[in-house]
C-alpha cells in the first residue's frame, strides 16, 4: 500500500469539500448532484472552512491525492447544519472515497479530528448520520451518543 499522510485541511480546499459533501449526501445512492451541493443552503455551508470562526479539519492523502477528509465547523444558528447542537459545538463531517473504505481510514480521520478538538480545548463535537448509514456504527464505537430528543434526526454528540 502507498504511504498514507494525514495533514491539516486548508481553507482553500473547497473542491475537496464539495466532492466530500456530495459523497456524504449520496452515501446510499445518487440522490443529489454537485449543483445541489453548491446551490442549496442546507448543503453549501459544508464546503466552506473558516479558520477565523474556529473551523478545522484533517485530510488523508496518498501520493498527494486526497482519499478522505474529516472536518468540523462552527455553523451559526441561522445557518445550522443537520447535526447542529449549539454555536459552541462544532459539527463534524467525515468522508472517505469509495475505494478506500473498510480499511480503518474513517476511524483514523475522526480520531485525528477529536485529538485536534482536545488540543483546542473544545468540550464536545456533534454530527448527524442517517439511521441506515454504516458510519453510525463507527461513530458509536468512538463514543458518540445519540442526543436525547434528536434521535430521529440522527444527531450524535461526543464529549472530548
UniProtKB/TrEMBL annotation:
Its EC number is 2.3.-.-. One of its GO terms (molecular function) is acyltransferase activity. Pfam families: Acetyltransf_1. Keywords: Acyltransferase, Transferase. Residues 4-160 form the N-acetyltransferase domain. This is GNAT family N-acetyltransferase.
Amino acid at each position: 500500500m502507498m504511504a498514507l499522510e494525514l495533514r491539516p485541511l486548508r481553507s482553500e480546499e473547497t473542491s475537496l469539500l464539495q466532492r466530500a459533501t456530495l459523497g456524504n449526501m449520496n452515501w446510499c445512492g445518487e440522490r443529489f448532484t454537485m449543483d445541489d451541493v453548491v446551490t442549496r443552503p442546507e448543503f453549501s455551508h459544508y464546503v466552506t472552512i473558516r479558520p477565523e470562526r474556529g473551523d478545522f479539519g484533517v485530510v488523508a492523502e496518498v501520493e498527494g491525492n486526497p482519499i478522505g477528509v474529516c472536518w468540523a465547523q462552527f455553523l451559526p444558528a441561522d445557518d445550522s447544519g443537520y447535526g447542529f447542537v449549539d454555536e459552541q459545538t462544532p459539527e463534524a463531517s467525515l468522508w472517505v472515497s469509495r475505494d478506500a473504505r473498510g480499511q480503518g481510514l474513517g476511524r483514523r480521520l475522526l480520531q485525528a479530528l477529536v485529538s485536534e478538538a482536545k488540543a483546542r480545548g473544545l468540550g464536545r463535537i456533534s454530527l448527524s448520520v442517517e439511521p441506515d448509514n454504516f458510519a453510525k456504527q463507527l461513530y458509536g464505537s468512538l463514543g458518540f451518543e445519540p442526543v436525547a430528543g434528536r434521535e430521529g434526526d440522527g444527531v450524535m454528540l461526543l464529549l472530548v
